[in-house]
Design a protein that fits this description.
The structure is a homodimer of 412-residue chains. Chain A is an alpha/beta fold and 412 residues long. Chain A folds into 3 domains: 170 residues, MoaB/Mog-like domain (Molybdenum Cofactor Biosythetic Enzyme, Chain A, 3-Layer(aba) Sandwich); 77 residues, 2-Layer Sandwich (Alpha-Beta Plaits); 153 residues, Maf protein (Alpha-Beta Complex). Chain A is built from 14 helices and 17 strands. In chain A, the strands form 4 sheets. The first copy, chain A, has a 6-stranded mixed sheet, sandwiched between helices. A 5-stranded mixed sheet of chain A has the order 14-13-15-16-17, sandwiched between helices. In chain A, β6 and β7 form a beta hairpin. In chain A, α3 crosses α4. The relative contact order of chain A is 0.08. Chains A and B meet through α1, α2, β2, α10 and β14 of A and α2, β2, α7, β10 and α10 of B. β2 of chain A pairs antiparallel with β2 of chain B, so a sheet runs across the interface.
């Protein structure tokens, strides 16, 4: 099956936003064994949307559009798709009610231009894709073996709609079964990972391995395309064992879970309470962990002790320790964790102090120098890390990930 | 002048890399007053490269290609461009010597296929773009008022070549200048914003207005294309005044700054100390603010008082208040702020308590109910907000933005 991804939005042509939708959809479609032949982007220009769509449909079986489903005058992707596919759009009462209740629920005023979002294809021309993350429904047009899938532009809405409604639909169209798993790793960088896995990657046919790099962490996707799901799954699992033999416990997930989710799940499932004291990450660790549903059962307290005064008052760090070793030192980190333990009694207490930059670095204590100290049921481990000083936020993010990983290893 | 950006590379269609080249080139071309009508991407497929290039040249004056200039057999962008432009390629001795010395310098072996990189257009068909960051030279084909610029794929090589050689060349061709500013707004949603600005948007010629929506906030881009930068700038500023007359103080930036940066700048410039106590946002406010450079001068302390016990112990919230009104109540928020003020003495003290969900909601206190209480030099303001219950993280993010906006308004 041949496909094209068609993005609509003047802001993309202005270079105001990076087209991450296309990256996401390309990965998903390829994993499903659907070839992606073209990426195209045009602005909110009805004529060009229509022309490009018509041309793409002469070359591919499936076109997935993103953007241009909003309520504003220049949101016309759906309308142009209907024209090209010779389909008609009608107000869908169910969708309209959903939009209305959405506005009612949130006490916002629904303006007339929102009604146009409920203008959708009927059964004879396609079907509707409900939007559970926003107001604009998506839709699918089907005609003479050609398919146009219209998705909203906001990534959060687009990805949810694609996962929930489009993937199941596309699976009914392809008779090859693809099974794919994402092994998530914290520790080695991408090139290091590739070198480690070289023996498995070179000459790979099925399953295939592909490495991906994200800020501070890496992933290995294992994909198998077989006749049945059982075969594909078995092939992927067999390869996963080979990968594990090489990467060991740097692997924190075999199913594309985020590190924060893996750590939160362990804490919640085992009812292990946690508190944290953050300096350079400044709440990023707490904020990330608390992003996980159900964490309230175990997350006791977070302290952003950014100033020295706060470290002393909140955690009982000794003035002399700060004077003698400095705020960024293992001694200070130790006292922060000890103080936090004393104050909260949480089973896991973790603290961090470091230099996020861009200023504040010295030859002895450069930007990126970080001390993390974690205590689990009285067993304390402290680490000095020299984070690559890419940028303030890169350092903070990497430090947060390192804290998560230390908690993961501490509780086992 | 109309242009298109044409990326060549199978890895892009696989979603293995994010196409940042296109974002960069889009920004640069727009700034130079060159309209970008299309972004296109195909794989390393000679037929498609040739076909797409020929088609684009029927619609635009300038096509900038990236990728496919390497030494391997499937690097054929330059060759296809030559065919489409009816140009011939010849080995350029100067470029060949440069490539040879590059390999000599880096102690790498030069294989024969690297010679193909020196196969370039002659004066009669265009000119060569030297590559000072890699081996593959770029080139420009010019014919009958149509221009094809071939750049390498690696961003570091591409951007350097574009800056050094392409920008000066393009400046000799355009005599229009674009100035554009992004007005950032917190409060009204996108459709509401469009309705408010309808009078200015409809029948817009120059300057043009376009509205954009980002999670929880909105923007209005004002763009003017004139003969000189002065004229364009003046036209944008004049329109900005009209927009201000309608949107008033919901505007927090005229130059595309983030809310967190605007707030942090005010605090830092005026030396106003700040502390926060967070429940449902769980450190997101502190973490976001501390992401801004230089904030350490004014950020005193952050408390993630997630549990009731933490609210009592850290902030002196009364047990009876929690029992009588609940943790999610204005009374609790007030006592959190009061306790924080007492503890830290920071000039700005802000606290938040709410239900981020997905669980924990009741008919009286639904998911998304949030109380924020900010105190600036003793003047306290509390607000009850019912955040759209899109998702746990949407609620937390919107609440964080609302906190930023309340600080912005409090300190004036």
């Amino acid at each position: 099956m041949k496909s094209a991804i068609f993005s609509v939005g003047t802001e993309i042509l202005f270079g105001q936003i990076t087209n991450t939708n296309t990256v996401y959809l390309s990965q998903k479609l390829n994993q499903m064994g659907i070839d992606v032949l073209y990426h195209e982007t045009v602005g909110d220009n009805p004529g060009r949307v229509k022309k490009v769509l018509a041309r793409l449909l002469m070359e591919v079986d499936l076109v997935i559009t993103t953007g241009g489903l909003g309520p504003t005058q220049d949101d016309l992707t759906k309308e142009m798709a209907a024209e090209v596919m010779g389909a008609e759009l009608k107000i869908d009462e169910k969708s309209l009610k959903k939009i209305q209740s959405y506005f009612a629920k949130t006490g916002r005023v629904m303006t007339d231009n929102n009604i146009k979002q409920a203008n959708l294809p009927t059964e004879k021309d396609g079907f509707i894709l409900p939007n559970d993350a926003g107001t604009a429904p998506g839709c699918v047009f089907v005609k003479d073996g050609k398919i146009v899938v219209c998705l909203p532009g906001p990534p959060r809405e687009m990805t949810k709609m694609f996962e929930d409604s489009v993937v199941p639909y596309l699976h009914t169209l392809t008779n090859e079964v693809i099974y794919s798993d994402m092994v998530r790793v914290f520790g080695p960088g991408e090139s290091q990972l590739e070198t480690m896995l070289e023996g498995l990657i070179t000459g790979q046919t099925d399953p295939t391995l592909a490495t991906y790099a994200k800020e501070g962490e890496c992933s290995v996707r294992i994909t198998s395309k077989r006749g049945t799901m059982e075969e594909a799954k078995a092939a992927v699992e067999e390869m996963a064992e080979k990968v594990t033999a090489i990467l060991g416990d740097t692997i924190f997930s075999y199913h594309d879970e985020d590190l924060k989710d893996v750590v939160a799940k362990k804490l919640i499932d085992r009812g292990i309470t946690i508190s944290c004291a953050e300096s350079c990450t400044g709440g990023l660790f707490a904020g990330t962990l608390i992003g996980v549903e159900g964490i309230s059962a175990v997350f006791e307290r977070g302290l952003v002790t950014y100033s020295n005064r706060a470290k002393v008052e909140e955690l009982g760090v000794k003035e002399e320790t700060l004077e003698r070793f400095g705020a960024v030192s293992e001694e200070t980190a130790r006292e922060m964790t000890a103080g936090l333990k004393k104050k909260t009694g949480s089973r896991v207490c973790i603290s961090v102090t470091g230099i996020a930059g861009p200023d504040g670095g010295t030859p002895e204590k450069p930007v990126g120098l970080v001390y993390i100290c974690v205590d689990f049921d009285g067993k304390t481990e402290c680490r000095e890390i020299r984070v690559r000083p890419v940028s303030r936020n890169w350092i903070r993010n990497y430090t947060m990930l390192m804290m998560m990983d230390m908690v993961r290893r501490a509780i086992g």
